[in-house]
Design a protein that fits this description.
The complex is a heterodimer of chains A (253) and B (260).
Chain A lengths: L4 H18 L1 H22 L10 H31 L1 H6 L6 H28 L8 H28 L3 H6 L1 H6 L15 H9 L1 H13 L7 H28 L1
Chain B lengths: L5 E10 L2 E11 L4 E5 L6 H8 L7 E6 L2 E2 L4 H7 E4 L11 H11 L5 H11 L15 H13 L5 E5 L7 H16 L3 E6 L2 H7 L2 E6 L2 E6 L1 H7 L14 H9 L13
Parallel strand pairs in B: 3-8, 3-9, 6-7, 7-8
Antiparallel strand pairs in B: 1-2, 1-4, 4-5, 9-10
Classes of the chains: A mainly alpha (253), B alpha/beta (260).
């Protein structure tokens, strides 16, 4: 059956992408929270935060992009949950198709939907004065890290979508993810935080990812943070993927 | 005797402490309609889920179209179509897109043409471009069954195909099912409506407390039960007679005889 894996996954991805393009409100809702936060921080709090020579909008955009992904994957979980509930999931599972294609279609759709949201948020940031002298390679590196981060959170979303008991439950896992950037270097430099908080902030994944993207945007040489952030992303992907597949196998017997 | 298309022996399944199936045996002959009758929670859906490879049995064997459901599940999936208890249509896609989707996944030639034929056969052509979330229960069920016919699988499972339908839609679904069997498709349907089993099935099995307690043709079943008594009663019209007399539509609109 694996002979059809690519074709079946493509057909199923086309289907769930239609769900995204036909409910553009999900893209807007995904982008609204980070955009609102961006407006608040740049025009309200930002003046009180000392970020040195970097303008505040340039300083906080990396964190905002991670928040965009964290709010976007809530819909990934919700789309998967809705499929499971509706009976269409069982229809697919009883058909002669590559069974894992059903899951991969949701993962690819999540990737595309989040990329669209990120483009929207970056466009708003540009209007607000975000500027970067980053070259093509720097932007590609930023895109690569964001894609890995999206995949990591997407596989977590798959676990949530497969095991949720209600639509609200399916999306709830993303709330803690939304708060992680606040206890990181995303909005304020961690050196201003009290000891234990700073220790947490310095050692959680968001800080190293934010620092890496910020260095790429501001054309500073990237520090060892890039390896730490890649390690976090790949590690989360592997663990979440294994857990998701385990839950999936149990679901489909 | 040819080998039965569906062959079930000693099927057992428990959910935690709930012993749902306690050794189910039955056979379904090729091209026949077999009704699994039982009250809510009798385990009808569990049997269908095991036969359609969505669930593993704890014990016993089952084969469909010559393939063991546990060992050859991929081959079983090539041979079957499942219409579950809840219409499994994609609400955000249109009726036609739903059919094209299944046609692509079944790798049939000319998915668009197959979709258009089925839309016509199930009188959904006018609604083809509408999202299925706007469909009535009957339309959704017709689309659901139409999706199951794509690729002409030799075996079709229908889990409570007429639950929640109005009388006309119900009669339409019955026509479709008879039509399928007439073309050689083996149909296993579950129902809790006695009249539905009586109307459609070549053989009827009653699933009760995890076992098949009766299995036979309608005539055989009638002979087992209390002998027929001759009584003279006034023939009152049933509510169904009244309904059709007023609505003036017996629901027997011709369906074209094309196979998908």
């Amino acid at each position: 059956m694996t002979t059809h894996f690519v074709g079946d996954t493509a057909v199923l991805t086309g289907r769930s992408l239609r769900h995204v393009t036909r409910s553009l409100d999900t893209i807007i809702t995904t982008a609204v929270v980070p955009i609102a936060l961006m407006l608040m921080f740049v025009y309200v709090f930002g003046g009180a935060i000392n970020t040195g020579s970097v303008t505040y909008v340039n300083y906080m955009l990396p964190g905002i992009l991670l928040i965009t992904v964290a709010s976007g994957v809530a819909y990934t979980a919700l789309r998967l949950f809705t499929d499971m509930r509706g009976g269409i999931f069982e229809r697919f599972q009883s058909m002669p198709i590559a069974r894992s294609g059903v899951l991969w279609a949701h993962v690819l759709t999540s990737l595309v939907a989040n990329v669209i949201s990120i483009v929207v948020v970056v466009a708003v940031a540009l209007l607000m004065g975000f500027r970067s002298g980053a070259g093509v390679l720097d932007w590609l590196a930023v895109a690569g890290i964001l894609i890995l981060f999206t995949l990591a959170l997407t596989w977590i979303a798959v676990i949530a979508g497969l095991s949720a008991k209600s639509p609200d439950g399916a999306g709830a896992f993303s709330y803690p993810l939304l708060f992680l950037p606040f206890v990181s270097s995303a909005f304020v430099p961690t050196r201003t935080m009290p000891g234990p908080v700073r220790a947490f902030a310095d050692n959680q994944p968001v800080t190293s990812i934010v620092n890496t993207i910020r260095d790429l945007f501001t054309q500073h040489p990237v520090s060892g943070d890039i390896w730490v952030s890649l390690g976090w992303c790949v590690g989360i992907i592997v663990v979440a993927y294994v857990l998701a597949i385990t839950v999936y196998r149990r679901k489909i017997a | 005797m040819t080998t039965p298309t569906i062959h079930v022996r000693g099927l057992e399944k428990s959910y935690k402490k709930l012993h749902v199936l306690r050794g189910v045996d039955f056979d379904v002959a090729q091209g026949s309609i077999f009704a699994l009758l039982g009250s809510n929670g009798a385990g009808k859906t569990t049997v269908v889920r095991i036969l359609s490879t969505l669930l593993k049995a704890d014990a016993g064997t089952a084969s469909v179209d010559g393939f063991d459901v546990a060992a050859k599940s991929a081959d079983v999936r090539e041979s079957i179509s499942l219409t579950g208890q809840f219409a499994a249509v994609d609400e955000i896609l249109t009726g036609r897109e739903n059919l094209v989707l299944v046609a692509r996944l079944r790798h049939v030639k000319n998915p668009g043409g197959v979709a258009d034929d089925l839309l016509e056969r199930f009188q959904l052509t006018d609604a083809a471009a509408r999202r299925t979330s706007t469909y009535s229960g009957g339309m959704r069920r017709r689309l659901d069954i139409a999706m199951s016919l794509i690729g002409a699988p030799p075996v079709i499972f229908l889990d409570e195909p007429t639950a929640g339908l109005d009388p006309q839609a119900r009669v339409e679904v019955w026509h479709t099912i008879r039509d399928l069997a007439a073309h050689g498709t083996t149909v296993l349907l579950t129902t809790q409506y006695l009249d539905e089993a009586e109307e459609l099935a070549d053989r009827i099995a009653i699933l009760h407390q995890g076992r098949i307690i009766v299995n036979g043709t309608l005539a055989e079943l009638k002979r087992m039960l209390p002998p027929a008594k001759v009584e003279y009663v006034e023939k009152q019209p049933t509510l169904e007679d009244v309904f059709f007399a007023i609505v003036g539509d017996n629901g027997t609109e011709p369906t074209t005889k094309e196979q998908p």
